Model the fold of this input.
Amino acid sequence: MEKETKPEYLKKLSEKGWSDARAGNLSFHGRTEGFSPKYKKEIPFETAKYPALIDQQLMISRKGADLNQYTEFIKNDLLSVRFTNDYMIIEGNSEEHELSSEYLSHFLLHQYLIQNHSGKKCILHVHPDEFIAISHSS
Done:
């Protein structure tokens, strides 16, 4: 991979209570090397809504990924998503390589980052325990 995804960052999130094990997602865009997925599926997709993503590659956590299992997360829970004119191609190392329900938000944010030449490539979406408690108390 171009830039190494460091498991210790995920561990710090968990230790600080900023991420519940299965609550949140990680995604980044850019070409990756050394990712040899076992499973692949092509899904018809309206890529015209995401023009900046055509010919791009995203790495995004799969549905149900456990951010607390750092080493396994890197090996099994990241999916490669590539976009062609008519398809979204999803590749991963787990038979359960379904995108999380927040994938469209990640696509929109990456499109924004690419179109605006921000230089930013990573989105980390977590559910800190304190914020969850606040949202349920009102």
